[in-house]
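Ops channel
N.P.: pipeline sanity check, posting one input/output pair.
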């Protein structure tokens, strides 16, 4: 119930309105030519609504779903805010990449493309890669938002005769850190079109035991670490527009030379 309304019109109509507001009487049938001050939330006579501080004729009475402010529609405004809030509350299209962890005890989370010239196998809690020629690929079956660092332990990178790589699939193009003879290459791999070297770095198996990548402004930053805790920036791939959801990728590329397997372990996990 409204507690105060300032009535600008004197006489019987004013007295009647005061009676309604303070004593619960009914309104007279006709208020044509009258004008009363009101505040948002105040009740006006039937056929009137509170607009810009006055009970104006036309529109639904205040409190019955009509607007009670100068914008003529708090209800509409609230609905819009509710819709926006609902959109903000929607879950992301894919989970954070930080939630994906794998000790490679099973290949169930991966889609593997290999063949006679190379092989990717999950053995004794490792993902092992062998190859003579060609490229083998293992991609995560699930998609993830690249919104955090992704790391892996290169436990057996060998000497690069099997180019073992770790990176992210951006559709037809993949970006990976690849172990090669003499070092590490940051490469752009196109499906069916070979590879393009973006940058090259020396390699130290102990100091670069862990590899990682994470998003930065307009690109992806690759890093290495001796312990998975302290990271050293290696190189960036840019410019790149990241898709909302991406797949993580492991690569094995043969060089035509027989070689022992290369292996990875502990994806987004620190060894015990």
């Amino acid at each position: 119930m409204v507690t105060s309304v300032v009535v600008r019109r004197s006489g019987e109509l004013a007295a009647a309105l005061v009676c309604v507001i303070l004593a619960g009487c009914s309104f007279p049938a006709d208020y044509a030519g009258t004008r009363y001050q009101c505040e948002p939330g105040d009740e006006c006579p039937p056929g009137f609504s509170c607009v810009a501080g006055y009970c104006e004729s036309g529109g639904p009475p205040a409190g019955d779903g009509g607007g009670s402010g100068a914008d003529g529609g708090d209800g509409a405004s609230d609905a819009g805010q509710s819709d926006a809030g609902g959109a903000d509350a929607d879950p992301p299209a894919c989970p954070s990449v930080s939630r994906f962890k794998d000790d490679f005890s099973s290949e169930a989370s991966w889609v593997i493309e290999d063949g006679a010239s190379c092989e990717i196998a999950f053995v004794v809690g490792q993902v092992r890669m062998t190859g003579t020629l060609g490229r083998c690929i293992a991609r995560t079956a699930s998609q993830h938002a690249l919104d955090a660092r992704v790391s892996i332990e290169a436990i057996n990178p060998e000497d690069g005769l099997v180019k073992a790589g770790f990176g992210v699939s951006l559709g037809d193009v993949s970006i990976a850190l690849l172990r090669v003879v003499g070092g590490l290459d940051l490469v752009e791999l196109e499906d069916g079109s070979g590879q393009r070297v973006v940058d090259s770095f020396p390699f130290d198996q102990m100091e670069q035991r862990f590899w990682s990548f994470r998003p930065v402004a307009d690109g992806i930053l690759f890093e290495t670490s001796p312990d998975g805790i302290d990271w050293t920036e290696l190189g960036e791939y840019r410019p790149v527009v990241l898709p909302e959801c991406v797949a993580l990728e492991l690569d094995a590329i043969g060089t035509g030379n027989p070689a022992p397997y290369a292996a990875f372990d502990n994806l987004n996990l620190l060894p015990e």
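N.P.: looks fine end to end. Residues 1-31, 60-87 have pLDDT under 50 and may be disordered.
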